[in-house]
Every structure is written in structure tokens, then in C-alpha cells.
Give the backbone structure.
Amino acid sequence: MDIAMLAPIAWRTPPRHYGPWELVTSLLTEALVARGIDVTLFATQDSLTAGALAGVCPAPYSEDPTIDAKVWEMLHVGHVFERAREFDLIHNQADFVALAFSRLVTTPMVTTIHGFSSERILPAFKAYEDRVHYVAISNSDRHADLRYAATIHHGIRLEDFPFNVQGSEDLLFFGRIHPDKGAAEAIETARRASRRLVMAGIVQDQDYHKKQVAPALDERSVVYRGPLGGAARVKALGSARALLHLINFDEPFGLSVVEALACGTPVIASNRGSMPELIDHGVTGFLVDSVDEAVDAITHIGEIDRSSCRAVVSARFTVDRMADQYLSLYRSILG
């Protein structure tokens, strides 16, 4: 089986720190290669893979301001379709642009929908639902007007996230500094609970950061570490009393939620989007509907068994499980 894996080009695959779509693409690619599948990864030229790398874009457009996103995305997507006949299947992880090329080739195509940025992009997916096999990353993110081939939750490499049996007394916010991610709510919750809050992630909304986050930063009660990757990421996720994930949108998935759980860190999350699919209320964390409920949940966080958090990830959210489900889908499509 020869697979063309089309990654986004916003970040390197795998990303240096932030880049959830690129991270999932890398995890799946490497797991498939380890199973003996021939995978060609179409990604930025600085990307890393044990498979074959095919890149035309020299660098990620989010890291290099000389890279025009629209121009290089067209060149990038065009590249995979020019080579389509070399592959048994194209797996698109790069949103809706590739859909417009799908009827120009005979190669079957899978598209993982990593969420909908807006209802306005739905017509692009609707137009090609009879040609492309869509995968949802959570049941909550399935759009009622679209046809899907499967729901496949993301998976992580459990060995990359060592279990931390004790954690610490600190709370953790780990995500984009953006209203959607609830940074201000995390700060308020930690303040009312009289707990130190460690924050990590890229600043995606500068005005929000200036008004809602920066005034609280004092290197004592609220500390901002910036975007974290590698060992620093793992240490932050594991050395916390709990992860505060008080999102203000229906998040399609939540990699940081699963990564924290893998380290043994319970999660207090807003009860919306995919969170009920990731968190078992009262077992691996708490699902809440307000800051008041989040503050109360902190008083009960000691009731959560950290080993149970890791056990749930081991059972339901590993990269091996994800790869097996995608392979099963590929084989059903190819007959």
C-alpha cells in the first residue's frame, strides 16, 4: 500500500512546539511507516519523517514571513495531485483546498476534518462528499449536513509522556492565548482558588493577551512560559495539580487534554465540544459550566487517581489505536 500523506504547511511536520494538525499528521505517518506501509509525506522541506519526504515549500509560512501562504499552499497541494497516480490513496490533512483537486484524479482520497473554522467553509466539504471519504476527529464535531466514513479520535505516543505520580500544587493553562481557549477564565479560577497558575502557549490574539493576560503576569501567582515543545512541554503537562481547559468554543478535539491525562494530570474542562468524549467526569477530571464550578472542582481534584488518567489514555487515545483505525478505513476503501 502506497499512501500520499498531505500535511499542512503552516508549521513544520512534526512541529517544533505549536502545530496540532502537523503533529497528528506526523504521528500517523510514523506509525504507518513502522507498520511497513509506504508513506510519502508531502510537507515543508524542513520536515522530518522515516518515510519519504516530498516538499516544494521551503519553510512553514507561520515561521517565515517571506512565504506567502496562499501561493505556497497552491504549489504544495498541486504537487501531490500531479503525482497522484503513484499512490493507492491520498490522505489529506490540510483542510478543504485539496478537495477541489479530487475529481481531477482517480486516486481515492481520505480527508481528516480537523474542525470547522466557520460555517462558511461548509460548501467546500459538501460539494465533494460523494468523492472524498471524510473522517471526523470526534463525534461532537460531525456536521449534521455531511456524510462521514468514520470518527477517529487522535492518538499520542504514550511513551513520550512519562507518568508523574505526584504533580505539584500548581495549576496549568496550556494552549493558544486566545478567547476561545479560556485563558482569562483560567486566571480567574486560579486566583479564586488561591493557586499558582503556569501558562504556556503561543499568543494568537495580541489584543486579548494585552488586556486579559499580561496584567495578571507577576512571576509569582501567574507565570507565562511561552510556547513549549519537547521536554519542556512534557514537564509542564506532568508537573501540575490539574490542567484548566475552560474553553469558550466547541473544540473538535484537545491534544493537550489527552497529553496531560497521559502524564497523570487531571483536567478541569468546560462541558462542551469534544470534552465529554475525552474526560470521564469524576474519574479523570471534571466537566464544568462556569468559573464557580471550576473553582469548586479544584477542591475535589485530590479525589482523582492520577494513574486512572493515564490508564484511560492507554486504552483509548494511543497512536497505535489511531493508526489501526485509519488502516482499517484505507483497506475498506481499497477493497
In short: The chain is about 35% helix and 15% strand. The radius of gyration is 20 Å. The first strand starts at residue 2 and ends at 6. Residues 319-334 form the longest helix (16 residues).
